[in-house]
## 1
Amino acid sequence: MILINENYLALKGSYLFSEMAKRINAHGGDIIKLGIGDVTRPLPPAVVDAMKEAVDDMATAQGFHGYGPEQGYAWLREAIAANDYAGLGIEADEIFVSDGAKCDTGNIQELFSPMCDVAVLDPVYPVYVDTNVMAGRAGDYDESKNAYSNITYLPCSADNGFKPAVPQKNVDIIYLCYPNNPTGTVLTKEELTEWVNYAKKSGALILFDAAYEAFIREDNVPHSIYEIEGAKEVAIEFRSFSKTAGFTGTRCAFTVVPKALMGADSDGELHSLNAMWNRRHSTKFNGVPYITQKGALACYSDEGKAQIKETIGFYLDNAKIIREGLKSIGIDCWGGVNSPYVWLKTPGGMPSWDFFDKLLDAGVAGTPGAGFGSAGEGYFRLTAFNTKENTLKAMEKVSSLKL
Ligand code: PLP
């Protein structure tokens, strides 16, 4: 009999979205869904046109594209460098195009020793923890704490403004996600500088997930960690076209691994993480389809940029409706300014699954904070990914709740 990777046995059940679906189905009726973080608006017309042209290319002998470069076509990597990293000194060969920030944030840990200590924010996007469990880095799961013994959790609550201090002890790998899923909060330049300085001092690596970068509207919020001096020596950044341009079903993202970034082997010899990720990417990944990359490229055209700005503005208007609706009935909330997510404190400290049921009775589905980690208990996430009409209707229903 084949022996299995027993690390998989340490994974706790992926309970959150299946339990939500179960309760929504059992409830029945007309429920407005402000729960799952998937976009609802169509692809920008500039992207659709570019993809149609690319399909036509593929129908001709001259325009046909077979296997492409695993790292992404140079024209897309150059457009990313010129637009997303203008003035930051990131070069095209430091950018790796992929089929998702989920895959990249999940796969990147393969480059590091099983002995590395990992720190995550709590509440957290579950992929960071689960992929380290699969790799055997997380230790044992303690049901009573909803935590793994070898993971350092950095609790985020209203008390610290959802911005935990840097760890007291040294850790090797720190996952930061800003704008944050699930709390919708951001770091200022000064706050992110503290993390970069910590990493420089302690030798840690920051894995910076900026999947929601396109939602940033406030001035002092960095769009990239490479805006911070010295970050190229201590950070990998993940971005995605998913939430930026409606690519959740189309699949295109990218990861930046600067050439200045080094890791040590057990003899203390230094190795380039860029070269290692390049090797990993070309061994295990065969590139994003030509048609999809042409669509992604169109995001950087004038038309594409304007259409994306309009769509993100639309979601942020919904987020404002949610924030103002909650505030009008005395519910404390955060996020929704530079993010599609609004994070709220459940009234009277109600457990977040009880609040889920209460909201469901009113005809609205959201996501219980406890599903993102133990520090999410007593909180709840609503998303701006719906129509304006449904968002307004949902907030009317929430307002009618007897809290
Ligand atoms: N990172 C965060 C924080 C997310 O919330 C998500 C999706 O919800 C992803 C990454 C996944 O992005 P992608 O669709 O590019 O895989």
## 2
Amino acid sequence: MKIRLDPLRGMRDLVAPESEELYYLKKKFSEVATRYGYEPIILPTLELFDLFSIKSGPEIKNSMYVFSDKRGRQVCLRPEFTAGVARAYLRLMRDKPKPIKLYYIGQAFRYEEPQAGRYREFFQAGVEYLGDPSINADIELLLLIRDYYKMVGLDNYKVKIGNIGIYRHLFSVWGIPEETQDLIIHYLDKKEVEKALSLVREYSASGQTLIEELMSISSSEPEEVKEQVSRLRLDSKSLEELERTIKILELSKKLGVGNSYVDLGFARGLAYYTGFIFEVTVPDVTFSIGGGGRYDKLISLYGGEDLPATGFALGLDRMLLVLDNRGWQLPEKKVKVVLIALVNYTVEVDQVATAFRNAGCVVDVRVVTKKKVGEVLGDAVERGYEYAVFLGEKEIREGTLTIKNLREKAQKTVKTDNLEEVLYELLRESK
Ligand code: AMP
């Protein structure tokens, strides 16, 4: 049988260097999230469709991988993580003291039209901060992103700050049912503003103007936002949400979070957001590389208590695309050593390899005959190995090693009884 070798459309086989780079981005995310006091959560890839169908929003609902399992249950591949975290919280964490801070890294699936930076299987790294209604939690999300990008070397990004709570509040005042609200927000997210406004008009004749005015509020200067807001006639709840938004802008500027700005003209595809929302963009690409916001009603929607929550997800594939286009290189380059063993795998070979590995080197052991040495050396040079270490009968007998610098072609024989010192020198010289 002839097997089709290409992966399915929108799915990818990732090999080095991309696979290494992606692992690096994952590792660094877990490092920074841990430093901020978040604990990892690992969730199933497959969930019941109902979990997402309640509140994912039409955009994501239409792009889910849904199918029936052998028992006829409607299941789906997760399109995102927040719903799964909410489910796991309700099952396992309700009695835990709040706040609860969780992070995740993993694949999500969306049946969208693939293009550069948009895949059907992609990696998200994100956090959920459960149980704190204050803007301190929202700000912490932005700080974590700031530190993560700094750690991996991604600069020149912008954080667009919005607020969906104002719209939801006004829609409720005008008697717009929640499902219609979700649809209006979906249209706003898709930039189909006229469709959104015509739905608003069905409930409030004057509402359209106010929505348009609110949507045009945009500035990176808190004072300017305040000035634009002061021209509108708003009720106290809307003003309160706007004040929060301005405060978030003030703080993120003060705390050095990218180039932050307020833009009340955007919405987000996921329908569970209730207040603060944000997106991270870079000038290199048209799509966002991350986003998130507050979802204070999701836990109660799933049958739990009122639990305020906020979180974000970063798209690791998109980050990598941007970094690679900017000529990024993996910062943590390890010294790569090929250990050419001219004897069968022995305790001595393992001891030497272990010593090099413990010192932080990458060690590839090749057990070969003398005849093959030239071939292995050529291959090692091609793969970017810096050193070849030879270990044969003679070296084992004499307690020595021969180390060849593959770049400078220099070669020396050293004693294995003070390998620590030899390794120290070697690592210093390779820097
Ligand atoms: P969302 O869950 O829609 O808020 O998306 C969060 C982040 O996930 C986005 O900012 C992207 O970086 C990333 N993302 C979403 N959809 C895709 C996709 N189809 N391919 C690659 N990355 C994606």
